[in-house]
Design a protein that fits this description.
Number of strands: 4
CATH architecture of the largest domain: Up-down Bundle
Low-confidence stretches: 5-13, 15-26
Structural class: mainly alpha
CATH superfamily of the largest domain: MFS general substrate transporter like domains
Order of helices and strands: HHHHHEHHEEEHHHHHHH
Mean pLDDT: 80
Largest sheet: 2 strands, antiparallel
Number of helices: 14
Number of domains: 2
CATH topology of the largest domain: Growth Hormone, Chain: A
Helix content: 55-70%
Strand content: 5-15%
Strand order of the largest sheet: 1-4
CATH class of the largest domain: Mainly Alpha
Radius of gyration: 28 Å
């Protein structure tokens, strides 16, 4: 014969009260667990140590979340001049170079990024370009410059970011995992997944495979890192569960400071 849930709950409360853990009754609206945390120490040395160690784990998700701004940046660019015995650059090299730009590159800011003039029987025909030169003033190399993710290939850059957002939507799954496997087990598993994916992606990016295959690998990597990024929410829940109600705002702020540290680390 099964014991009703209400009876089991009351029995647990009575047990805590009989053991004398709390000499004063709990305030209205305060759960027994919160009262036990308050009596045992709401923010003692143990919690501070855990906050520091777990906070360090929050640095990595912050770095992977915001480094996309830099690795996928699109510098100013225009079509590359197809002239024999001449190396084109975005910055003007000489007056002759400027004349070439005036002859082949449209003056319109929109057209000069994606179109170039082709001379045919004294006529200029505007055609889409297949090669570009980029301004290296602020960015040396990004995925946009390496894989030409501009103009008619700009949507491919958006797909990589959408893959990351889709990965973060897996938080409902990691929430279930943390309930079944435990907060720490799930958190460490996601951190391990992130480290493996990032290192494997780095190795593949320096291999000799084609740029299209690298783009595919990078997109898959963005999805997996987005999924692993959900470890931050599990970290927050873990820290809140070991802190009393009066210190949970402080706990949230401390974890946010570590997350901000990760953001500042990529600058």
């Amino acid at each position: 014969m099964s014991i009703p849930k209400f009876t089991r709950k009351r029995s647990l409360i009575d047990l805590f009260q009989r053991t004398g853990i709390s000499s004063t009754p709990s305030p209205p609206g305060t759960s027994t667990i919160d009262q036990l945390l308050h009596d045992a120490g709401s923010f003692g040395l143990y919690q501070k140590g855990q906050f520091f160690l777990v906070g360090l784990l929050a640095v990595l998700p912050a770095m992977t979340a915001f480094n996309y701004v830099f690795i996928a940046a699109t510098p100013d660019h225009r079509c590359q001049l197809n002239i024999t015995n001449f190396t084109d650059t975005f910055l003007v090299q000489s007056s002759m170079h400027q004349n070439y730009i005036n002859d082949y590159i449209p003056s319109s800011l929109k057209d000069r990024k994606c179109s170039i003039y082709k001379k045919d029987s004294q006529k200029k025909i505007l055609i889409p370009c297949t090669k570009w030169v980029f301004d290296n003033t602020f960015y040396n190399t990004t995925i946009s410059t390496e894989w030409n993710l501009v103009c008619n290939r700009l949507h491919l850059k958006g797909i990589t970011q959408n893959a990351y957002i889709m990965g973060t939507s897996g938080s409902f799954l990691t929430g279930i995992m943390s309930d079944k496997l435990g907060r720490r087990t799930t958190m460490y598993s996601l951190i391990l997944l992130m480290v493996i994916v990032l290192n494997a992606t780095q190795m593949i990016m320096h291999s000799d495979i084609s740029n299209d295959k690298k783009l595919l690998v990078f997109t898959i990597s963005r999805f997996l890192t987005g999924f692993a990024q959900t470890t931050y929410s599990i970290t927050l829940v873990l820290l809140l569960e070991m802190t009393s109600a009066s210190k949970r705002v402080l706990a949230t702020n401390i974890l946010s400071y570590f997350y901000t540290l990760g953001m500042a680390r990529i600058l």
